[in-house]
Amino acid sequence: MKRLQPEALSTAGVNQATLSAQLVERQALRFTPAGIPVSDLKIVHQSEVQEAGQTRTVGFEMQAIALGELAHQTQAAPLEARLKLTGFLAPRTKQSKSLVFHITGLETMQSSTEN
User: What pTM does this model have?
Assistant: First the structure.
């Protein structure tokens, strides 16, 4: 196993993301065995970003999950709502290679047609 150099250690372990997304699918609220509310979601992201001096269009669909009070907030949000999400990425299960966005913060974004 390769050891990280001291300068690499300052960023080792960082797993934070902020994402604007549209809520496109939501499962019924469920609860963990400990009674914590869980909301399983599907979100869609579309944006243009700069990479190597070029504009790149980015679009993807992703599974997301919210726990606790955030689970209730996502259940109350209408489908197609535009959201600003903060959170982290984690595998769906310990053995899985597919990632899920774990929501730790949520803001509803006003659409351009709303005043």
Answer: 0.82
* Cβ neighbours for 58, distance < 8 A, ≥ 6 positions apart: 45, 46, 47, 48, 49
Contact by Cβ (8 Å): 56, 48: yes
Tokens for 21, please give them. 């997304």
Per-residue pLDDT of the chain (115 residues; tens, 9 = 90+): 565 565 655 667 899 999 999 999 999 999 999 999 999 999 999 999 999 999 999 999 999 999 999 999 999 999 999 999 999 999 999 999 999 999 999 999 976 554 4
Residue entry with tokens 């006003």 = 110
The HSE-up count of residue 94 (CA atoms within 13 Å, CB side) is: 0
